[in-house]
Write a structure and sequence with these properties.
Mean pLDDT: 80
Oligomer: single chain
Structural class: mainly alpha
Number of strands: 0
Distance between the termini: 34 Å
Length: 154
């Protein structure tokens, strides 16, 4: 009985180690793609803070678009065409949802100035907006990692 328990325990430990190694491999793949996207994105060179934020935000969007492209390319290897379309819509909706939350919390707090709430929020180039862009990029990297993990399980 002890031998069976020992054998079963070793099997469970080995299975957990293989799964952990798979997750590490998926994270390494997504990190390599992220680094490639960072290298492809234009560097921010502006000295003035506002212009620097504008360039940083554009750079972050470039990195995120590169990640989304890789998400779609890699997901298309293992998902059906309908699922790929659904994934593309879901990625766009995720970005839009976070932007809407940001807009509501920052620009639509008072009911006095609807121009910032409805239109001008797109002109925002604050540090908070840059942090939102970075959060969205991080989300895309995590989704790319999930795609690789899913493919490893197939």
């Amino acid at each position: 009985m002890k031998k069976i328990f020992l054998l079963l325990s070793l099997f469970v430990i080995t299975t957990a180690n293989v799964q952990a190694e798979g997750n590490i491999a998926a994270d390494k793949k997504s990190t390599l793609i992220y680094e490639k996207c960072v290298l492809q994105a234009p560097e921010a060179t502006a000295v003035q803070p506002i212009l620097g934020n504008i360039e940083d935000i554009a750079r972050e969007r470039s990195i995120r678009n590169c990640l989304k492209k890789d998400i779609m390319e890699n997901a298309s290897k293992s998902l059906s065409k309908n699922s790929i379309t659904d994934l593309e819509v879901a990625l766009s909706n995720a970005e839009k949802s976070l932007f809407d939350v940001y807009k509501a919390l920052i620009f639509c707090q008072n009911n006095e100035d609807n121009t910032w709430c409805n239109e001008r929020y797109k002109d925002d180039m604050s540090l908070e907006k840059l942090m939102l862009e970075k959060e969205l990029t991080s989300l895309m990297k995590n989704i790319l990692t999930a795609v690789f993990e899913y493919q490893q399980e197939l």
